[in-house]
Records
---
Amino acid sequence: MIEHNDIGDLPWSGIAIGWGWGLYDPGSFPGIPGAVSGQWGTYDTPTTSLGNEIVNNRIQDYVQELWDGGAIYSNGQQGTSLEDGELIAGNVASGKRPEAGSNTFYTDGGSRYVTLFENVSYDNPVGVTDLGPCGLPSSLALCWVRLPYGSDSGGCRPYGDLHFQSNYFLDPIFYDFVCPYPPYPVDVTRTDDQVISGPWDVPERILREAGRQWSGRRFDPRAQLADTGPSSSSAGGRERISEPGRKRLASR
């Protein structure tokens, strides 16, 4: 578990978890553009990374030098189901470098079995891709291209089985437009995510409990999820969004 940290002034991501972009997982999912299933070998056993919780962290001023990162960055399979997968809950993120193309809560290549609950993202503007530098033998052919990239949530070639519930985002759209890989991600569900205009629209409880300050009681997001609905709910398709629209939320 990674909980109650203040993390800031970061050249890249705040917290990063996972490896392999799906290529090391059973089935060898090609979670990197241009990858081919099996190119790093074939694996039959599920990941040993399961049950990880990233809870109540305050992350500020990230990707200050690089790009293509996030406040919390995941890749690869994170369990064997949503029940024993990765839980990202109660984290508050702001202050991304404006030019850095990045997703705040970034479920990148091969990400699977991740639940995001009561997280907050604000002051994280859309950035641009940076495929440079140009003029080197190793430079990419499209090194000069600058495309808008990033949102409060998104990823490049995630597998799916991603559940969003009661998050507070300026933009509820899952961003995967630069590197689409249909039909993936599959089974992306959203329940009661709120569209906000700033931190004043977020319950004070969530803002107060993020970071090093300690409230005196253990926050158990898995129990709270169980009380509000099954974490294994599935859209059965690309994405289902239940969005109540922008509204000011009272502290609770």
---
Amino acid sequence: MPLTAYNHVPIPSFMYGTAWKKEATTQLVQSAVAAGFTAIDTANQLIHYQEALVGDALQALAKNGITRDRLFLQTKFTPANGQDHRTPYDASADLTTQVRQSFDSSLAHLHTEYVDSYVLHGPYQRQGLGDADWEVWTAMEGLYASGKAKMIGISNVAAQQLTQLCAQAKQKPMVVQNRCFAALGWDKEVREICRTHDIIYQGFSLLTPSPNGQGLVSHRSSFGLPCTSGCSR
């Protein structure tokens, strides 16, 4: 059953995460869609993702009648401190330019004119939000306003940072994607902030904090299992 963000954009409850799939990405994405997934999560970050191979899978699916409009695509802008030397942008450019270059690269990789969700892979600092975070978020707000990103969000965010973003941003996030598992209390504080602000929470690593727990679930509120509805990684 899909959820609906506060801006009225629907989002599937479960997403297929493509991190660490490497050269198997294309086949695994096709298999995931054949198994019933209608949402794919990726990132423009070659250390962990092969976004272009996700695009190859989408082209193959389209040839078999599963067109772009039937799938929900979520990708991410990853800051330079989360990249290796293969950045999808000019790392010496200003951050606004980096966001634009990374986004344009993602559209090319995915063979699409828009993404359903565009996510900041993580703040530039562990505590609070600095000038870099605000410049990137403003650039992402611009992509949302243009209609090329149907929703925007943030990942790997602490409760205080999310509170600050919701209070001060022109456009608060529609989605938050965080690691969610028992050892960290199921990310309760962040989930409660999401509930207060009507933000869709996406939990990953629900069963284990290791890379082997690769489900991504999205939900609006917690009930039963701590994180239910929308996943990827």
